[in-house]
Amino acid sequence: MPFAKSKMRGEDGVFESTLVMIPLLALFLLTLEIVIAVNFRNVDLTLTQSDASTRAISSVVTGDDEVLKFKSRQSLESIRVLITHRQRTLPRLVPKFLLPGQEGDHSVDVSGIAVIEENQ
Questions:
Q1: Residue 19 lies in a domain
Q2: Positive or negative, the Cα torsion across 73, 78, 79, 80?
Q3: How would you list the strands of the sheet with 66-71, edge to edge?
Q4: How far is it, in rounded angstroms, from Cα 110 to Cα 39?
Q5: Which helix (H) or strand (E) holds 85?
Q6: Is residue 2 part of a domain?
Q7: Residues 108 and 87: beta-carbon distance below 8 Å
Q8: For residue 120, is it within any domain?
């Protein structure tokens, strides 16, 4: 029995376990940061496209929007296209000391495009 107690109380392998856990934790946080970035981009893209479609139907243009005019070949009317933008800063999960080459904040920038409906 004393042999089993000494083996259970021994701390052999603690340092090696730490050397394995730190890179695994960094890899997990990097992977989680990528998953969050992709999901934020998809949500922002959906919201921006919905916002562009809503404003194009109601012909409401804000100061941040772009309006492009194209001459239509089939009729004498011109086509107006509304382009909206949205930008969001992403959360940082990995500490800066683990990835020293990355300065600044990461952000997602998406655009939504819709044809402006003419009210007649």
A1: yes
A2: positive
A3: 66-71, 78-89, 107-115
A4: 13
A5: strand 78-89
A6: no
A7: yes
A8: no
Confidence at 105, pLDDT banded by 50, 70, 90: confident
pLDDT of residue 110: 93
Amino acid at 61: V
68 lies in a domain? yes
The whole-number pLDDT of residue 39 equals 94
CA dist 7 and 21 (Å) reads 22
| Interatomic CA distance for residues 48 and 18, integer angstroms | 44
User: In the prediction, which pLDDT does 107 show?
Assistant: 85
Q: Specify the number of domains making up the chain.
A: 1
Element (H, E) at 115: strand 107-115
Domain housing 19: 13-95+105-115
Average pLDDT over residues 103-119: 83
Q: Is the pLDDT assigned to residue 9 strictly greater than 70? A: no
String of DSSP letters for 19-76: HHHHHHHHHHHHHHHHHHHHHHHHHHHHHHHHHHHHHHHHT---TT-EEEEEE-SSSS
CA atoms within 13 A on the CB side of 116: 21
